[in-house]
Amino acid sequence: MNLNATLFAQFVVFILLAIFTAKVVWPPLMKALDERAQKIADGLAAADRSKQEMVAVERHVQIELSKAREETQRRLNEAESNANRLADEIKTSAENQAAQIIAQAKAEAEAEALRIREKLRNDVASLAVKGAEQILKREVDASAHEAILKRLADEL
């Protein structure tokens, strides 16, 4: 065989193979590569969007957390002030009740003292009448001498 003919035949086969590859094999291969590149680009864009969304969500979460902390602090302050106010009201109420009880006890003591004084006056008057009766050796009529006994009781 002739070397030139072999080279020429190989050249023709190579050209036919190149044309076949360029027409049949290359377009689907390039299409697959382009689709793959597009998917990668879309994935990178989605990752960037996700990062941005994550940053925005983190900001939103931080804002909500700070709002929640402020709300919690405000509620704690309100609860503390309510507790202090209620404690003051209870203390005032207890002081008022104590004052009422003391006033009532004083009034009862004064009434009891008056009652005891009155009883003591009556007892002293009765003893005075008995003593006078003993001294005079006769009976003294209490109803007849009521004015005198009343004056004596007032003096006591």
Please describe the topology of this protein.
Layout: H1 3-136, H2 146-155
Helix pairs in contact: 1-2
Family: Belongs to the ATPase B chain family.
Keywords: ATP synthesis, Cell membrane, CF(0), Coiled coil, Hydrogen ion transport, Ion transport, Membrane, Transmembrane, Transmembrane helix, Transport
Transmembrane segments: 6-26
The helix count comes to 2
SSE topology string: HH
Give the percentage of residues in beta strands: under 5%
Molecular shape: rod-shaped
Round the Cα radius of gyration to an integer and report it. Answer: 60 Å
* Helical/strand content category: mainly alpha
Explain what this protein looks like in three dimensions.
This protein is mostly helical and 156 residues long. The protein has one domain. 0% of the residues are buried. GO terms for molecular function: proton-transporting ATP synthase activity, rotational mechanism; proton-transporting ATPase activity, rotational mechanism. Belongs to the ATPase B chain family. InterPro entries: ATP_synth_B-like_membr_sf (IPR028987), ATP_synth_b/b'su_bac/chlpt (IPR002146), ATP_synth_F0_bsu_bac (IPR005864), ATP_synthase_B_chain (IPR050059). It is found in: Cell membrane; Endomembrane system. Pfam families: ATP-synt_B.
